[in-house]
Each structure stands twice: as structure tokens, then as C-alpha cells.
Amino acid sequence: MAGAGPGAETAPGAAGSGRTGTRPPVPAGAAAGEPGGGRLCDLVCDGLRERIVTGRLRPGDRLVERELAAEFGVSRVPVREAIRMLLGEGLLQAVSPRRIVVRELTRRDVENLFDMREALEVLAVRRAAEHRTDIELRTLSRLLVASRTAAAAGDPERLARADAAFHARIVRMSRNELLVDTLDTLEGRLRWLFRQVEEPGPRGEGQRLLYEAIGAGDAEGAARITLARVRASRRVALRVLFDA
Fold first, then answer.
1. I need a labelling partner for 234 at 20 to 30 A (CA). Which of 71, 218, 225, 227 fits?
2. pTM of the predicted model, to two decimals?
3. Computed from CA positions of residues 136, 137, 138, 140, in that sequence, does the dihedral angle turn out positive or negative?
């Protein structure tokens, strides 16, 4: 994928469209290394990623550096770096050196994502079942309850966050830092995909069965549950997104 040049004009295609909403300026003291600050580019990157995942920025929307810098209350340098990070994650696309847009995922992109899910999520649950601890299982149980509560309340945003936290905890339980880092890189695209297509079957029941398999140390059972869920999700995604 082509990268954006240092002078690339880059801010949401939502500029002027009213889709991006407003965001308070990033605190001036949030520079790298400053107490309580964090890196400005990370803050901008997180904000843009969230807009893409939730659909406030849609495929084809253009990003313009100077407009984003004004909106986030920062210079163009952290905006430029955030855009480079999102290009690397596959959420943005450089259609020319000075034109950056939100990437539209093709059928091949979606198939590739599901291939990665099959390989990595199955590995994660196997390792989680093998390395589980009582403390981790209690944490996982609380996240399962949070997911059920959000589902019962009919709160899709809260449910999406609870589900993400549940599965992220399982990945961390794998004790495989490379696996964690790889799934982190795919996180934005996976979250976007989850929002486009409802996971098939009763979500809470699937999570309960997975929790029980991990808790029992049943690595093969956890792998079977996960593989079946991902493959069913693939079929639904291809039908909904591409009428396939």
C-alpha cells in the first residue's frame, strides 16, 4: 500500500459533511514523555480509528491534515504520524501522494481477515485454556457478566465494548506476546467487520461455552467452539457484504 508523503493533505471526508462530530482539543501538555500526557499521535490515531470503526468516517471519505489538526487542537505533525499508523493498519488508503481516504474493504480483504481470525483466535483460545489461572478466570467471568448485562439492556455500543474486552482478555491469557501484537494490529479492521455483521447464533451462549471450555482446561473444545463461530461468521459476512 502506498504511504502518504510528509506533505500529504490529510482530514476526515467528514469535513464539511457533519459526520465526524466534534472533539475537545487534545491537552497541550500531552506530548511524548510528559507526565500524564501520552503521545499526541496516539491520541489522534485512537480518535480517528474510533470514527472509522463506528462508521462516522465511511469508506472513501477523505482526510485532510490541516482540518484534522484544527479539530484536534494539535499541530499537523501528530496528525501526519497518526495517518501513517492507520495506513499501516489498513484502515486508510493513499490513492495519490496527497489524497488519503478511508479504505473500502474488498471481498478479498474480508476473506483474508477471516483466514487470520481462524488461525490466530483458535491459537489464542488453545493457549488460554492451557495457561489459565483462577484470577484470570474470575476476570473473564466478570467480563462475561458485563456482556450479558449489555445485551439484556439492548445497548449495542456497550455490548461491543464488553465483547471486545472479553476476547482481548482471552488473547492476553495466551501468554504469547507476538500473538497479542499481531491481533492488536488487526484490531481496527476486525472491530469494523464485527460492526457490519452480527455474529451468528446467540452470542451470550457461545461466550458461555467458550468460558467453560477454557475454565476446564479443554483446549480442543475451546478451539472447536471458536473455529465454528468464526466460520459461521465468515458465511454471514460474505452474504451480507457481498451477496455471496
1. 218
2. 0.75
3. positive
